[in-house]
């Protein structure tokens, strides 16, 4: 019968304990070396595999026959060759595709849909946004998606640290002096773990498939430049740590203070660009060989027929003196490069098409002209379908992050957020990147609101002003009230004027 997490952590043998914690992972560890070789153009096989793509051997001196005067025998002198580097052209195709996919997925900040029911919920929502801002989440989201697409997995670890900034200390002193409510001088911070960052990740799932613990194996450099291998396990209450380099040495465990597991994890069974790897390999070989051909035939060879008696003139007006019947011709390369161009373009287009990635380049977009937002939506339909697929993992990741932060803020500041953390409802969703025509969006919003299809709130959000919905609604009400008052005053003046005119009887 398999051991529970509690039983594993209670094992006295640390080596056995860590072995069981690693077995909690239900998938194979990503091959970090292979993934890095595909990601880094300097590590592509065209650059490093000298057996598959050897340098060119160039004849430096032909074989000769020598004669030994002492023995009177002839002997062979072997030909001499030297290695001449061939062209090695690597293409960062995976990087470009992943970066474009990342931009379409989280280039536009994910939406946060929440309607606070009271002031406490509004304060909690503002606190969540403040945590996002202090941790630069809009940039961290890109790192997460990029790592997930290229490295297969990524984890985000949240922890509490003391806010020792000047203003935190200042306001604490002011509140204490005047008897006000003192806010905790704590702040939430996060860090990312992934294979390229040197981490081996071991999510622990129970038999029901629930994510109940997380372990990380990593190397830590000491002051004397030596390295130690460390292993840490995080549960819903505790953080355990061990040093593995000096036997199995247990370090002090501590409570992280959160009501939930402070680790968010995203995994995919293979890197996003695995299906286009063969295209990239063929493309690199094709371009490298073509570059060798160009170099070889760049300077044409002079073919001489008959006897050459000499050369006349300098560089620009140089001539060849030939005997009667002799001739001189250049050997030219008559191969048409259209086949190479066709294959290169075909491979490139197939790589982007099969990954549902639009080619964002000047050559691609210059023919579009002044396209509308609707036209761009059709152009980016493939990328948006990919984002929809990414949302199955990344969308859930972002939602779990919001849920965790709500509970974390409630535990850090229970006096202010404990009640609101139990009732607030915040939904987050991916918003695919789009080159929008503002005029199109405003026209659509105005038509939908005036036609009764959308509310004013929905129209404001669609027009791209989601961050100021409440402010815009308040300003619209104020403007409408002022306009109604102006219309009312104008109507009263008109009515008064009519009554005054009716009081006079002009006779002719």
In brief:
The protein has 508 residues and is an alpha+beta fold. It has helices spanning 5-9, 14-23, 32-39, 45-48, 93-106, 119-134, 137-151, 166-178, 277-298, 338-354, 362-365, 373-379, 381-412, 414-423, 438-450, 456-462, 469-502, and strands spanning 56-61, 64-68, 73-77, 80-84, 111-113, 153-162, 186-193, 200-205, 211-221, 227-234, 238-243, 249-250, 254-255, 263-267, 301-305, 308-312, 319-322, 327-331, 427-429. The protein has 5 domains: 1-30 and 153-267, no CATH class; 38-53 and 89-137 and 355-436, no CATH class; 58-87, no CATH class; 281-338, no CATH class; 438-502, no CATH class.
Description of the molecule:
By secondary structure, this protein is α+β, with helices and mostly antiparallel strands. The protein folds into five domains: 1-30 and 153-267, no CATH class; 38-53 and 89-137 and 355-436, no CATH class; 58-87, no CATH class; 281-338, no CATH class; 438-502, no CATH class. The chain is built from 17 helices and 19 strands. The strands form seven sheets. Strands 8, 9, 10, 11, 12 and 13 form a six-stranded antiparallel β-sheet that branches. Strands 7-6-14 form a three-stranded antiparallel β-sheet. Helix 6 (119-134) crosses helix 13 (381-412) and helix 13 crosses helix 14. The longest helix has 34 residues, at 469-502. It is flat.
């Amino acid at each position: 019968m398999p051991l529970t997490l509690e039983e594993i952590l209670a094992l006295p043998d640390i080596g056995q304990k860590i072995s069981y914690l690693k077995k909690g992972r239900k998938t194979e560890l990503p091959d970090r070396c292979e993934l890095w070789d595909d990601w880094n153009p300097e590590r592509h096989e065209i650059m490093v595999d000298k057996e598959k793509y050897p340098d060119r051997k160039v004849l430096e001196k032909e074989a000769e026959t020598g004669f030994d005067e002492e023995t009177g025998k002839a002997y062979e002198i072997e030909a001499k060759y030297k290695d001449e580097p061939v062209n090695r052209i690597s293409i960062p195709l995976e990087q470009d595709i992943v970066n474009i996919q990342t931009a379409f997925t989280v280039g536009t900040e994910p939406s946060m849909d929440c309607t606070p029911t009271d002031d406490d919920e509004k304060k909690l929502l503002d606190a969540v946004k403040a945590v996002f801002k202090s941790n630069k989440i809009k940039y961290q989201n890109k790192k997460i998606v990029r790592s997930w697409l290229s490295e297969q997995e990524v984890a985000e670890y949240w922890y509490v640290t003391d806010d020792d900034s000047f203003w935190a200390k200042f306001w604490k002193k002011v509140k204490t002096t005047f008897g006000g409510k003192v806010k905790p001088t704590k702040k939430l911070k996060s860090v990312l773990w992934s294979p390229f960052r040197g981490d081996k990740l071991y999510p622990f799932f129970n038999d029901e498939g629930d994510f109940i613990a997380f372990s990380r194996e990593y190397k830590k450099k000491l002051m004397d430049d030596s390295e130690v291998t460390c292993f840490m396990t995080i549960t819903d209450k505790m953080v355990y740590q061990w040093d593995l380099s000096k036997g199995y040495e247990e370090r002090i465990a501590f409570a992280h203070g959160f009501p939930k597991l402070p680790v968010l994890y995203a995994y995919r069974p293979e890197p996003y660009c695995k299906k286009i790897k063969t295209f990239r390999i063929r493309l690199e070989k094709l371009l490298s060989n073509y570059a060798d051909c160009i170099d070889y035939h760049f300077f044409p060879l002079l073919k001489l027929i008959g006897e050459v008696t000499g050369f006349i003139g300098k560089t620009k007006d140089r001539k060849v003196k030939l005997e009667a019947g002799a001739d001189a011709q250049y050997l030219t390369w008559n191969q048409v490069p259209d086949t190479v161009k066709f294959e290169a373009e075909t491979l490139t287009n197939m790589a982007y098409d099969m990954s549902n990635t639009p080619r964002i380049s000047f050559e691609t977009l210059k023919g579009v002209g002044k396209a509308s937002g609707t036209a761009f939506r059709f152009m980016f339909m493939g990328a948006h379908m990919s984002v929809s697929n990414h949302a199955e993992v990344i969308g859930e990741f972002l939602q779990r992050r919001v849920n965790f932060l709500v509970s974390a803020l409630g535990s850090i500041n229970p006096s202010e957020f404990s009640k609101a953390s139990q009732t607030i409802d915040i939904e987050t969703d991916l918003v695919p990147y789009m080159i929008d025509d503002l005029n199109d969006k405003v026209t659509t919003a105005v038509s939908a609101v005036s036609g009764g299809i959308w509310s004013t709130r929905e129209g404001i959000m669609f027009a791209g002003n989601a961050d100021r919905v409440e402010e815009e609604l308040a300003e619209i009400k104020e403007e409408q009230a002022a306009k109604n008052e102006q219309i009312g005053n104008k109507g009263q003046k008109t009515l008064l004027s009519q009554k005054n005119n009716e009081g006079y009887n002009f006779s002719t």
